[in-house]
Amino acid sequence: MTALQDPTAIRHFQSLCDALQEMALRYSGPSEMKLYADGYNHALRRSKQLDTLSQQRFEELIDRWIRDPSSFLGPDGDPRTLFESERR
Q: What predicted TM-score, i.e. pTM, was given to this entire model?
Protein backbone atom coordinates (compact mmCIF):
# COMPACT_ATOMS: atom_id res chain seq x y z
CA MET A 1 0.00 0.00 0.00
CA THR A 2 1.23 3.48 -0.78
CA ALA A 3 2.18 5.25 2.43
CA LEU A 4 1.36 8.85 3.15
CA GLN A 5 4.24 10.72 4.70
CA ASP A 6 3.06 14.33 4.55
CA PRO A 7 1.27 15.27 7.83
CA THR A 8 -1.24 17.40 5.91
CA ALA A 9 -2.03 14.46 3.60
CA ILE A 10 -2.52 12.20 6.61
CA ARG A 11 -4.97 14.67 8.19
CA HIS A 12 -6.91 14.94 4.92
CA PHE A 13 -6.92 11.15 4.55
CA GLN A 14 -8.38 10.71 8.04
CA SER A 15 -10.97 13.42 7.44
CA LEU A 16 -12.08 11.92 4.14
CA CYS A 17 -12.17 8.38 5.55
CA ASP A 18 -14.34 9.59 8.44
CA ALA A 19 -16.73 11.28 6.00
CA LEU A 20 -16.91 8.17 3.82
CA GLN A 21 -17.57 5.98 6.86
CA GLU A 22 -20.46 8.29 7.78
CA MET A 23 -21.78 7.97 4.24
CA ALA A 24 -21.55 4.19 4.49
CA LEU A 25 -23.54 4.23 7.71
CA ARG A 26 -26.23 6.14 5.81
CA TYR A 27 -26.28 3.39 3.17
CA SER A 28 -24.41 5.31 0.47
CA GLY A 29 -23.00 2.97 -2.14
CA PRO A 30 -19.43 2.79 -3.42
CA SER A 31 -20.29 4.88 -6.49
CA GLU A 32 -21.65 7.71 -4.31
CA MET A 33 -18.60 7.55 -2.08
CA LYS A 34 -16.30 7.61 -5.11
CA LEU A 35 -18.10 10.70 -6.41
CA TYR A 36 -17.70 12.42 -3.02
CA ALA A 37 -14.01 11.48 -2.87
CA ASP A 38 -13.45 12.76 -6.41
CA GLY A 39 -14.91 16.12 -5.39
CA TYR A 40 -12.73 16.19 -2.27
CA ASN A 41 -9.66 15.34 -4.36
CA HIS A 42 -10.50 18.06 -6.86
CA ALA A 43 -10.85 20.67 -4.12
CA LEU A 44 -7.60 19.52 -2.53
CA ARG A 45 -5.78 19.76 -5.87
CA ARG A 46 -7.16 23.26 -6.45
CA SER A 47 -6.09 24.40 -2.98
CA LYS A 48 -2.53 23.17 -3.64
CA GLN A 49 -2.08 22.15 -0.01
CA LEU A 50 -0.13 19.06 -1.08
CA ASP A 51 2.81 18.71 -3.40
CA THR A 52 2.23 16.75 -6.59
CA LEU A 53 3.64 13.45 -5.31
CA SER A 54 1.71 13.60 -2.03
CA GLN A 55 -1.49 14.43 -3.93
CA GLN A 56 -0.97 11.48 -6.26
CA ARG A 57 -0.32 9.10 -3.36
CA PHE A 58 -3.35 10.46 -1.53
CA GLU A 59 -5.65 9.87 -4.50
CA GLU A 60 -4.32 6.35 -5.10
CA LEU A 61 -4.74 5.42 -1.45
CA ILE A 62 -8.28 6.78 -1.25
CA ASP A 63 -9.24 4.91 -4.40
CA ARG A 64 -7.93 1.64 -2.96
CA TRP A 65 -9.55 2.34 0.38
CA ILE A 66 -12.99 2.83 -1.20
CA ARG A 67 -12.68 -0.39 -3.22
CA ASP A 68 -11.67 -2.43 -0.16
CA PRO A 69 -14.85 -3.76 1.51
CA SER A 70 -13.02 -4.23 4.80
CA SER A 71 -12.73 -0.43 5.05
CA PHE A 72 -16.40 -0.16 5.98
CA LEU A 73 -18.65 -1.60 8.64
CA GLY A 74 -22.37 -2.02 8.36
CA PRO A 75 -24.76 -0.29 10.78
CA ASP A 76 -24.83 -3.45 12.87
CA GLY A 77 -21.02 -3.77 12.79
CA ASP A 78 -21.12 -6.41 10.08
CA PRO A 79 -19.47 -5.41 6.78
CA ARG A 80 -21.57 -7.99 4.90
CA THR A 81 -24.77 -6.05 5.61
CA LEU A 82 -23.40 -2.62 4.67
CA PHE A 83 -24.89 -2.43 1.18
CA GLU A 84 -27.85 -4.69 1.80
CA SER A 85 -30.40 -1.91 1.19
CA GLU A 86 -28.71 -1.19 -2.16
CA ARG A 87 -29.49 -4.73 -3.39
CA ARG A 88 -33.22 -4.42 -2.73
A: 0.76
